[in-house]
């Protein structure tokens, strides 16, 4: 989860924002752009995931905050805990190779993919069982409808 200019863009889920390097967004604008609540943004700030600038009581989000929010939302979407997301994001060093961050992200991603694949297998099994149950219930209803119709004829 590299915090860079293209953070979160690979998934194509987040809007492209045309702005300059120094553009600042207020909390309401951030909430609207990323379809989150004000409470969510404040929560992420309380957890140390976002670090908006302050002008009085107004929170102002930088390009870095927007990149971090994209990564937070992407991480949550694929099932990472906020602790995991913070751990991965906090390892980012704009002047370094970020090899440690990339290794950690890959390790956590491989583990999460395994969990998601197990969940998918369990869901596929449950769907198959539910379909079988529905077939049995339909057959029982059909048999009972025929039995009732036959008893009304006699």
Walkthrough of the structure:
This protein is mainly alpha-helical. The protein is built from 5 helices and 3 strands; from the N terminus they run E-H-H-E-E-H-H-H. The chain has helices spanning 27-34, 38-46, 63-77, 82-90, 99-153, and strands at residues 25-26, 53-55, 58-61. Strand 2 and strand 3 form a beta hairpin. Helix 4 (82-90) runs antiparallel to helix 5. The radius of gyration is 25 Å and the shape is elongated.
Please give the order of strands in the largest beta sheet.
1-3-2
Query: Radius of gyration in whole Å, from Cα?
Result: 25 Å
Low-confidence stretches: none
Summarize the main sheet. 3 strands, antiparallel
- Oligomerization: single chain
Strand coverage percent:
5-15%
Number of helices: 5
Total strands: the figure is 3
Keywords summarizing the entry:
154 residues; 3-stranded antiparallel β-sheet; 62% helix
Brief summary:
The protein has 154 residues and is mainly alpha-helical.
């Amino acid at each position: 989860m590299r915090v860079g200019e293209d953070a979160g863009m690979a998934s194509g889920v987040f809007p492209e924002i045309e702005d300059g390097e120094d553009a600042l967004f207020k909390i309401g604008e951030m909430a609207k752009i990323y379809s989150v609540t004000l409470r969510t943004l404040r929560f992420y700030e309380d957890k140390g995931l976002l670090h908006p600038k302050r002008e009085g009581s107004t929170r102002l989000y930088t390009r870095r905050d927007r990149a971090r929010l994209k990564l937070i939302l992407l991480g949550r979407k694929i099932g990472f805990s906020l602790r995991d997301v913070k751990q991965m994001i906090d390892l980012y060093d704009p002047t370094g190779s970020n090899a440690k961050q990339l290794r950690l992200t890959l390790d956590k991603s491989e583990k999460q993919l395994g969990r998601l694949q197990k969940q998918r297998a369990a869901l596929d099994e449950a769907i198959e069982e539910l379909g079988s149950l529905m077939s049995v219930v339909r057959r029982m209803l059909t048999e009972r409808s025929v039995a009732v119709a036959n008893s009304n004829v006699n």
